[in-house]
Amino acid sequence: MSYLVIMRHGQSVANEKNVFTGWSDVALTEKGIQQAHDAGKKINQLGIDFDHAHTSFLKRAIETLHIVLSEINQQYIQETKSWRLNERHYGALRGRKKDDVKLQYGPEKFAEFRRSYTTVPPLLDQPDEEHKYEKIGVIEPRGESLKMAYERLIPYWQDSIAPKLLDGQNELVVAHGSTLRALIKYLDNISDDDIDRVEVPNGKPIVYHFDDKLNVISKKTI
């Protein structure tokens, strides 16, 4: 049996300003830093000895992970950073205030951009060129639906997380709202239509307990 703890990073500067973020690399706010410390304290109370930690290429998640590891006194464990855990790419909406987007497109389309499984946001004219992705041969998307984020995330789950859990190891994942919604969709077998009702708050750990065949025994938010 094994444990998987997943959590969204603490509040970021973009969260505070209520703007679409995606792959933009923004820092945590003071509130976000405190959320990470509080989450770490809660995880510490579980007494789980983690074998591996996973996070994205984005510093708001990386900083959150490192705070959590310090709170549980497990900074020594191996950690892997993967672009596949990056937030969904919001394309040309990136950096725009959500209230302005709602005003431009209307409440219904705005809700689609945020929560729909298949709706793709307005695309960037061309992909960004950023060294950290070029270095590993990844072309930054021009925009993604949640389905597209799901399709890049699940191979990482299948190759890098699930085998460790099947081996009885305990895993910690600190990532982003959309990619964690995609993972929850997979783990909880949530339909395409129902995933729009799933919310992953900042800094709230979700604990999965699996049997030796990777069936979910229990799930709780702490």
From TrEMBL:
Sites marked Transition state stabilizer = H176
Q: Which organism is it from?
A: Apilactobacillus nanyangensis
Protein's job: Catalyzes the interconversion of 2-phosphoglycerate and 3-phosphoglycerate.
Q: Which InterPro entries match?
A: His_Pase_superF_clade-1, His_PPase_superfam, PG/BPGM_mutase_AS, Phosphogly_mut1
The UniProt keywords, alphabetically, are: Gluconeogenesis, Glycolysis, Isomerase
Q: Where is the active site?
A: H9 (tele-phosphohistidine intermediate), E87 (proton donor/acceptor)
Kindly give the CDD domains that the UniProt entry links to this protein.
Answer: HP_PGM_like
Q: Tell me the pathway.
A: Carbohydrate degradation; glycolysis; pyruvate from D-glyceraldehyde 3-phosphate: step 3/5
Name this protein carries in UniProt: 2,3-bisphosphoglycerate-dependent phosphoglycerate mutase
Which residues are substrate-binding?
8-15, 21-22, 60, 87-90, 98, 114-115
Q: What class of enzyme is it?
A: isomerase
Concerning its family, UniProt says: Belongs to the phosphoglycerate mutase family. BPG-dependent PGAM subfamily.
Substrates-to-products reaction catalysed: (2R)-2-phosphoglycerate = (2R)-3-phosphoglycerate
Q: Which Gene3D superfamilies match?
A: Phosphoglycerate mutase-like
